[in-house]
Design a protein that fits this description.
Layout (H helix, E strand, L loop, with lengths): L1 E7 L5 H11 L2 E4 H7 L6 H10 L12 H9 L2 H24 L6 E5 L3 H4 L7 E6 L2 H11 L4 H9 L4 H7 L2 E4 L4 H25 L12 H15 L5 E4 L4 E4 L3 H10 L5 E3 L5 E4 L7 E5 L3
Parallel strand pairs: 1-3, 1-4, 2-3, 4-5, 7-10
Antiparallel strand pairs: 6-7, 8-9, 9-10
Helix pairs in contact: 1-10, 3-5, 7-8
Amino acid sequence: MLRIGLTGGIGAGKSAVSARLAELGAVVVDADRLAREVVEPGTPGLAAVVEAFGPDVLAADGSLDRPKLGKIVFADEAARLRLNGILHPRIGALTAERAAAAPPDGIVVHDIPLIVEGGSGAGFHLVVVVMAAEEIRLHRLTELRGMPVEDARARIAAQATDEQRIAAADVLLDNSGALAELRAAVDALWADRLVPYAAGIANGVPAPVTPGTVTDADVARAAARLRSWLHRPDLRVESDGSELQAFLADADEVRSVAGALAGSGWIVGPDATSARSADPGNPARLRLVPGT
């Protein structure tokens, strides 16, 4: 199963990308939708929010007044963190439930606004970031959604910067233009990268090796993913410019790690000391180095 993390700043157009991926056949797990489900009337999640922020965050019908709560948390970092502490564990449980319903060879897209802010990109095979210039996003928020300009600017400022998103991204989708252009870019991503990547993972077939060098950003993302997948936060990963190298204690540890890489996107070779990526967009090589 290929797991995609889809994110983008408010007003960037992430929902349009998510909708197109669903049309193409992806299983989309929408964090915003799940966030609404966990605070529906009568849920423990809504009761916890009311306990933390008071009954004033309720609408007249007993549902959560999301705009009122939004004004509180987007203007107060501590309040936002408190809300996240209530929502994230509940959203996480629902996320796992929905993703488990996807087929083993499927493509699961996790539509999550705050992947970069939460530092959760390492948990996905790829992170796709939808980008648009701030002025374009402001226009969409104020003119198309009717949001006051002060609120729009505050929400943008509370999120990650463009530079942070670019550093976290394996794929950047520019949504500064027409919707048709964005949909065409998504279609190309689906056909040229996501479908072959999912097939490579399911069938244990690496992507063809192509010439190229490994950038510092590639190394950082790959290292974080390896550490996350293997549950080894201190794993040392470096690059010599042509391949990644993971340094391990001895041959027994190499064999253990090689066995644990199944499903990670790395296809381990017969010698169990080297692996190649199934990602056609980044056909990297990995060597497991013992004795260090």
